[in-house]
Amino acid sequence: MNQFEEKELKQEMEQVELYLTEYLRDPGYGGAVSRVLRDMEQSRGKRLRPRLLLMASRYGKDFEAARSKLCRLGALVELVHMASLIHDDIVDDAPLRRGLPTAQAKYGKDMAVYAGDLLLSRIVQSLFRDGFARVGQMVGEAVEAMCVGELGQMECRWNEGATVEQYMRNIYGKTAALCRLACMAGAVESGCSEEMQLQLEQLGINFGYMFQIRDDLLDFVSDAYEEGKLTQADFREGIMTLPVLYAMEDRQTKPEIICLLHAAEEGDFGFEHAARLKTLVTTSGGLARAAADMQMYADRALQAIGNLPDHGVSDVFRDLLRAKCKISAAG
């Protein structure tokens, strides 16, 4: 992407922010609703999903004419993500998100539930009002997949027999489905051909898998509050991510990891337990195998890019994928 195109993308992301401000406005409710909406507006994530949407849309023949609608759609996809994070924090009883108090920590679980639901209601209103009929169906499918993934993860909590296959099904819903939605929504609304839509769908899915596995690796190789959450936070909540599941395939390692899991379930999982878990996951090869899978999905996403027409934005996609894979199993 040349400098002019990069500048345009930056301008489009600024427009996404303006639409987010519009969606998070307080029409005069005041009180707690006003405070919650203000906090959500001030929350600044990476905006990765709107960026994926806008980048994918640049392959479409109608991109220029649809630019404003695409920015609005990018804001809606980000709202879906924000609503899911609010609900995740409630389930996880998380005190922090990106280093700031979560809605449930600041206002209580009841108010946080309704805050997430308020965002979903505004998404539905906009989808109908602004004529996003086909994309609206895709949003519904993505939200359903996200719920199924979260339910599947809940079913696997504290389960010593959880499998890699279950994990992969769950993270499709938790992460990959929304990345798929972002790429597909951009492709559809910009007039991409069916073949390009299929390639961008594969790009989104594989990017999502790569991104989630990367997050699981960071949970072990980070030493502090990186990415806005405590290290090994998932294991503390009974969630076994890919590095742990691979480590548990080692017969010598599995019994000790199960003991650590029992300790976490009883609320007795301190720094020594965390250090021991990291050692087990590393020496058993679990961390390296998960890192290899992360690279595999990145390579599949790169292959999808290679099957798309030659375009400056393809290099931006490649740079993004390579940047996200800059993490080693050794930390």
Please, could you describe this protein's structure?
The protein has helices spanning 3-23, 31-42, 48-57, 63-92, 103-107, 109-129, 133-156, 164-189, 194-221, 233-236, 242-247, 254-265, 271-283, 286-306, 312-324; strands spanning 96-97, 100-101. It has 331 residues and is mainly alpha-helical. The protein has a single domain, classed as Farnesyl Diphosphate Synthase, CATH 1.10.600.10. A two-stranded antiparallel ribbon has the order 1-2. It is globular, with a radius of gyration of 20 Å.
Side-by-side strand order of the widest sheet: 1-2
What is the CATH architecture descriptor? Orthogonal Bundle
Structural domains: how many: 1
Q: Helical stretch count?
A: 15
Q: What's the name of the CATH homologous superfamily?
A: Farnesyl Diphosphate Synthase
Could you give a short account of the major beta sheet? Answer: 2 strands, antiparallel
* Large-scale geometry: globular
Q: Roughly how many Å is the radius of gyration?
A: 20 Å
Structural class comes to mainly alpha
Low-confidence blocks of residues: 224-229
Oligomer: single chain
CATH topology: Farnesyl Diphosphate Synthase
Mean pLDDT: 90
Intertermini distance: 32 Å
